[in-house]
């Protein structure tokens, strides 16, 4: 099967690293490399530069290139799943740069457009995937209107589409789409991180994306191992431990999704807590709450 190594790795913890900034507000490439190296040395096999936890939409083109290059430099033998998006030409340009820099996969971000037709959604992804046939392509699906038949039609037109990061908060819908697309045709990744992973694994997911893995890699990897081994009771024990952290990230419509991860890394002395608007820094009370969570994990 084409892209067999990439398929195997996507059935695991897909890390979305943060993008650290310097005091001047620039991308801190040196710190970025250290964070990626920490992930892969912990056992993570897929790293996604320029994902949403990496503040993709707050970075300019040159900065996304910096993040991609820092990742490929530090990833060692791990797979690099480069986040690309915006208009078709911009996404293709980014995907070609990723390929030239050593990435072996690209994740196409959900189209940010007020008018998305299903046929246009297929055309958008096909146009990008066909320009980089050497890269495995992962779709980022957040739109509940996308049907399994749409995914199957896209895969017919672009054989390098191999994975689906499904981020619609509905396990029943997920299973329906996966069944209609052909469950064995794609690697199905639970795209809403650790709290949703058990429910999605129960209906067919084999991997999940994670921002928490930046902070506590072994917790995320342990959760994955338990889910892979169908140890749902053990998985839910971990779920209970991480729930306060993930709920802090999800508060106010995910407003602090990135801020919580970066502040946790800051409390561990690994990077600055700075985020770019429209994200915000945590309040003192929130930082204290986060400190208590990290302490309960034995990390602070």
From TrEMBL:
<protein>
    <submittedName>
        <fullName>Dihydrodipicolinate synthase family protein</fullName>
    </submittedName>
</protein>
<dbReference type="Pfam" id="PF00701">
    <property type="entry name" value="DHDPS"/>
</dbReference>
<comment type="similarity">
    <text>Belongs to the DapA family.</text>
</comment>
<dbReference type="InterPro" id="IPR002220">
    <property type="entry name" value="DapA-like"/>
</dbReference>
<dbReference type="InterPro" id="IPR013785">
    <property type="entry name" value="Aldolase_TIM"/>
</dbReference>
<keyword id="KW-0456">Lyase</keyword>
């Amino acid at each position: 099967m084409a892209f067999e190594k990439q398929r195997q790795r996507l059935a695991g913890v897909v890390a979305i690293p943060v993008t650290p900034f310097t005091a001047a507000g620039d991308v801190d490439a040196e710190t970025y490399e250290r964070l990626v190296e920490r992930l892969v040395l912990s056992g993570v096999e897929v790293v996604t530069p320029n994902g949403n936890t990496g503040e993709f939409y707050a970075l300019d083109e040159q900065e996304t290139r910096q993040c991609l290059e820092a990742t490929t430099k530090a990833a060692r033998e791990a797979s690099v799943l480069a986040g690309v998006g915006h208009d078709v030409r911009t996404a293709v340009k980014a995907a070609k740069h990723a390929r030239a820099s050593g990435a072996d996969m690209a994740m196409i971000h959900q189209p940010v457009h007020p008018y998305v037709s299903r046929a246009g959604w297929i055309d958008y992804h096909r146009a990008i995937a066909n320009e980089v046939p050497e890269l495995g392509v992962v779709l980022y699906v957040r739109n509940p209107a996308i049907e399994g038949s749409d995914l199957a039609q896209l895969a017919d037109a672009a054989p390098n589409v191999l994975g689906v990061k499904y981020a619609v908060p509905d396990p029943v819908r997920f299973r329906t789409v996966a069944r209609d697309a052909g469950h064995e045709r794609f690697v199905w990744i639970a795209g809403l991180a650790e709290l949703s992973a058990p429910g999605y694994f129960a209906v067919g997911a084999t991997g999940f994306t994670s921002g928490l893995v930046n902070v506590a890699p072994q917790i995320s990897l342990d959760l994955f191992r338990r889910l892979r081994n169908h140890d749902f009771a053990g998985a839910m024990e971990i779920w209970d431990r991480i729930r306060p952290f993930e709920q802090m990230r999800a508060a106010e419509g995910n407003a602090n999704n990135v801020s919580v991860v970066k502040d946790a890394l800051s409390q561990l002395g690994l990077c600055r807590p700075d985020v770019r608007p429209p994200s915000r820094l945590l309040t003192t009370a929130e930082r204290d709450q986060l400190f208590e969570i990290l302490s309960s994990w034995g990390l602070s």
